[in-house]
Fold this protein.
Amino acid sequence: MNILECIINNKAIEVLANPGIVVLDFLRQHEHLMGTKEGCREGDCGACTILVGELHGNEVIYKSVNSCLMPLGDAHGKHIVTIEGINQPKELNPIQHAFVEDGGTQCGFCTPGFIMSLTGYCLNNKQLKSSEAIHSVDGNICRCTGHPPIKKAIHHIVDGLKKFPKTNGTPLTHLIEQNILPEYFLSIPKRLEAINIAPLVDVHIEEEHMTVVSGGTDLYVQKAFSMHAERTKRISSWQKHVPITEDETLIHLPGTTTVEEFRLSPVIAKYFPELKTQFELFGSTPIRNRATVAGNIVNASPIGDMTCLLIALNASLRLRDGGSQRTIPLRQFYKGYKQIDKKKSELIESISFPLPKPNSRLSYEKVSRRKYLDIASVNTTMAFELNNDRIVNCGISAGGVGPTPLFLAKTSEYLNGKILNGKYFEDALEIAQTEISPISDARGSAEYKRLLLRQLMVTHCMKYFPGIVRKESLV
Ligand SMILES: Cc1cc2nc3c(=O)[nH]c(=O)nc-3n(C[C@H](O)[C@H](O)[C@H](O)COP(=O)(O)OP(=O)(O)OC[C@H]3O[C@@H](n4cnc5c(N)ncnc54)[C@H](O)[C@@H]3O)c2cc1C
Ligand code: FES
Ligand code: FES
């Protein structure tokens, strides 16, 4: 039990509570805030979406989060906003009103989640766009209304809010003026400042059996019914506000970087602009707001998307164990199914990979059964440099085709030094098939996954060498 201090809607909370239970249970069972719904408890439906506000300087930044996967301990020092917290005293707020008017709600079970996601989008953007607003509800599913009336409501909300005042206004003050948020939001920065949050500077795993929790998006799915009883070390606030940086040779990111921070990082955008859109297919906005890069690597899923990208980019991990540290190439980290080269007490402190050069090229591809909110059936990345038309420093990764995320060492080596032509590329496709050992499961048969990898490698090739792919390779 720990003392939890936070603000839930407009109420200051100070309570002795188990930090390992999820925020959803605390809201419903302790605070009796029943507007936040319990659906799947796996981050898939969005019925439990809340906003979590955190102090950055003297401003509070709000993010949408699945409360079913967020440990209560991570609410310490934060502003937790539920649907009750944005209600106006007498009438529906304009977002709620648009849902009713446009027929965007029937049973209403999903509605609070949609409204919280949209409110989060409006709070984070001065210039609203319908297409982006629709993306912000990528983690919300409606089972009975159908999505077209919800989209119609979103268009009306965005149109109504577009007239952002040109001077002085922030999204927060604009939303208060538009009666979307209550005025108490203005008092939150000062109230959060008054809560004493000890920074997590020097992280030690004091007890052998402690479970390290970062975003919790894997752990709270895998151990939904036992996490509340575990001794946990919550590290999501470790390296808080440490950005992704570059030096002369490397790009560095803290292990606790969230997937959304990675996706929106100016450094990543400078070298890999296409990843911003491609990584919209990683989970959903609330999942990406919590899921971390190190968590993705340590979870060791053969189809982890971050892992797939970072293997091709030849990333290294810096592991910290109390006062000592070591560095290991990610390509050597996986030893077998869910077996990794890491002691229980070691933490991934940071990840780095070589700074891309002007002649560097990257192609990342993922195929899943559903386009959105689904993990890959097969994913693959190809990274290389072009020196006078010659491929050098080639790195090809493949996920979903073996017990671990794979580095296709032989295929990559074969392509190194080659001026690519149809024959060499056909050879590479053949070599890749010898490096994989997919199994049949819910994501497809072994044969299908072999074919998928082959086709995705053809896609890599077509992006940079469109002329050399033979017609026979396309079928
Ligand atoms: C609905 C949903 C959709 C998803 N979609 C995708 C998807 O499209 N693509 C994809 O790749 N994944 C997806 N995931 C999986 C998940 O979000 C990622 O694997 C995530 O990156 C894990 O990070 P986390 O911080 O939440 O990990 P946690 O759950 O906190 O931890 C996972 C493991 O990593 C360990 N760990 C965490 N941080 C560290 C560290 N710094 N050092 C040492 N050990 C550490 C933990 O002890 C634990 O063993 C999805 C999950 C959900 C629930
Ligand atoms: S209950 Fe479904 S995402 Fe949380
Ligand atoms: S209104 Fe019933 S699930 Fe969306």
